[in-house]
Amino acid sequence: MGIVAKAIRKSKTGSAKPAAAGAEPTAIGSAGQAAAAPPPAALPEQPGEAAGGPAVLPAPAEAQSSPLRALPTVHVLERQPGGAPPEGVPAGPPAAPESAAMPPPAQAPPPSAEPPAGKPQPDSAKIEPDLVSLATPEGPEAELFKLLRTRILFPPSGRPPRTILVTSAVAEEGKSFVASNLAVNIAKNVDEHVLLVDCDLRKPSIHAKFGFNGAKGLSEYLTGGVELHSLLLKAGVEKLTLLTSGAPPPNPSELVTSAKMAALIEELKARYDDRYIIIDSPPPMMAPETSAIAKWVDGILVVVKYGTPIDLVEELVSQLDRDKIIGVVINKISQREFRSYSYKKYYGRSGYYRYRA
Q1: CATH number assigned to the domain covering 137-355
Q2: Rounded CA gap, 209 and 122, in Å?
Q3: Alpha helix (H) ranges present in the chain?
Q4: Given this model, what pLDDT does residue 39 score?
Q5: Cβ-Cβ contacts under 8 Å for 346 (sequence gap 6 or more)
C-alpha cells in the first residue's frame, strides 16, 4: 500500500476527531475508494444529548504537529533527482527487513583456457620430426644434444656464453636443426629460459619446425610498426620462447645490419639477462649480415656437414672471430662413419680444430 493521507483518528470512546483546520484530507476505505470527510467546523455540545453520544470535539493541540496530519499523496520514486522530498516523506526507499534474502554476490568468470588472441599457436601435428629433442628425448640424437648442451653451459674455464650464434659454411648443413634442438634441450633439461631467434630472413625454417605457419617476426619488427612483445611466441615447450623471421623481405642484408638490429640484440641481452639467446643465421659466405651478427654475440657455434670440403670450413673461420668460436658440430654422419671418425684425421690440415669440441 502506498502513502495514504489520514484524515480521521478514533478517540478512546469511539468518536471521530476532525483534522486540523485548513487541510483537505482524504480517507481511503478498505475498498480503496475515497470517503467524504466530516466538515472541519467544530459543533458545540447540544443540550439534551444522551451521555456517551457521538459528540464532536475540537482537535487537541498536539494533533497539529502530529505526523498523522493530512499530507498530499506523493510517490517517492517520482521525486526528481537532486530535489528535496516533501515534508514528512522519507528521503529514500524503506529499508528492507533483516530477514529478506540478499542475492548472492556476482561470481567472477573462470579464467579462459583459450590462448591469448592475436598470437598464433603451434600446431602439434605439424611439428617436424627432426626436432628430436622434443619428439624422441631419449633417443641417440637427443643424447648427443645433451652432451653438446653440457659442453656449452659448463666450459672448462670462464663463464658460458649467454648469446650464441649458430651458423655454417654452406647451405643445407643443418644449422637450424642444431639451433632448434639445442634450444629445446636447454629449456627442458636445465633450469634456464631460452629465446630462439631466427635471423635467416632469406630461407627461414624455425617457425615450421615448431608447427607455426605464417607467423610475424623479426622482419616485421625491423621494418617498423610492430612491437617486440607482440612477436614473441610460446613454442609449446616450457621456458622456450621464439622470435621467428617473419615474411622474407626484399632487403634482408640491409635490415639485419641496421642500427635497429644492433639495438635489438643489446635489448634482448639486457631484458633477458636470465636466459640464453640462440640465434640461427645463414652462412656468412652467402649472407654478409651474419658477419655483423657475429660481432654482437658472446659465442659462435659452427655446424659442418660430414664431407664438406675443408677449404670452405677454413674460409668460414676466417670471416669470424676465432676467439668467439665455442665449438664445431659435425652433422649428417652415419653411425659407421661416427665410430671410425676422428677430428685429427678429418681436420688434419688445421691445427685449430684438433682441440675444439
Answers
A1: 3.40.50.300
A2: 10
A3: 132-135, 140-153, 175-189, 206-209, 218-222, 252-256, 259-271, 289-294, 310-318, 335-339, 343-346
A4: 53
A5: 310, 330
Termini Cα distance of the chain: 94
Q: Which three cell numbers stand for residue 194?
A: 631460452
Work out the number of other CB atoms within 10 angstroms of the CB of residue 191. Answer: 7
Nearest residue to 149 (alpha-carbon basis) of 113, 184, 109 = 184
CA dist 45 to 50, 53, 58, 351, Å? 11, 10, 11, 140
pTM metric for this prediction:
0.63
Question: What's the one-letter identity of residue 159?
Answer: R
Give pLDDT tens digits for 104-156: 555 544 433 334 456 788 888 888 999 999 889 889 889 999 999 999 999 98
> DSSP secondary structure string, 72-133?
----GGGSPTTPPPPTTS-SSPPPPPTTSPPPPPPPPPPPP-SPPTTS----GGG--TT-HH
Strands 34-35 and 27-28: antiparallel
Q: What tens digit of pLDDT does each residue of 310-329 get? A: 999 999 999 999 999 999 99
16-36 pLDDT, tens digit each: 444 444 444 444 444 444 444
**Domain range summary for the chain, segments of one domain joined by +:** 137-355
Q: What is the DSSP letter of 276?
A: E
What phi and psi, each to the nearest 5 degrees, are found at residue 3? -80, 125
Strand partners, 234: 241
